[in-house]
Amino acid sequence: MTRHVRGTHILNVISYVKSKKGITGLEDMWKQMEKKRGKVKREYSQNEMIEYDLLLDFFEVVDELFGTGSDETHRSREIGKHIVENLGHFEYLLRAEGLKELLEKATVGMDQVYDFGRLELAEWDDDRAVVRYHDFPKNENICSYFQGSLEKDLEMLKLQGDVEHTACPVEGGEYIEFTLTWD
């Protein structure tokens, strides 16, 4: 089964690299992608459904070229924060009354972004939430990407807190899980 994701994710990787490394960094990324995959198109539309493995290849190439992120994890974690700050999630943040509503809207909207997988708000408390991503392939980069986006959600909602990666298919878990805590 081929999995797909909206082009907005690739556009976000491109935007991140351009903002951090400039045009030279972008060219380096494209050259490396072509070494990895052969001819790769350079223009994507936000709503276009693209092969999910292509997104994972972009994450790998960005890590290979530019090293780990500022927190010694994958650059995909920084890219996850970038998407919340610069693209799609910001609209959710403006319309949501708080984190719970944001997460609930995200669980419903997940199928508009991916043609596979499911997001679950597994637990909710006044200062804690557990979020699970079901049916995603084993890949550390996608875990980092989701963690970064959740961290930025907390930050943009002005909640002081933490996002802990508490389960992972890479380590034998059934799903990707994060526990969010805040004051």
Quaternary organization = single chain
Give a quick account of the main beta sheet: strands, pairing sense, barrel closure. Answer: 4 strands, antiparallel
Uncertain stretches:
none
| CATH topology annotation of the largest domain | H-NOX domain
What's the end-to-end separation, in Å? 42 Å
Kindly report the spatial arrangement of strands forming the biggest sheet: 3-4-6-5
| Shape, principal axes of CA atoms | globular
User: Tell me, what is the CATH class of the largest domain?
Assistant: Alpha Beta
**Count of beta strands:** 6
Q: Please tell me how large the radius of gyration is.
A: 16 Å
Overall CATH architecture of the largest domain: Alpha-Beta Complex
In percent, how much strand structure appears in the residues?
A: 15-25%
| Helix run count | 6
Number of self-contained structural domains: 2
Q: Considering DSSP H and I runs of 4 or more, what fraction of the residues is helical?
A: 40-55%
Q: Return the string of H and E elements.
A: EHEHHHHEEHEE
CATH superfamily of the largest domain: H-NOX domain
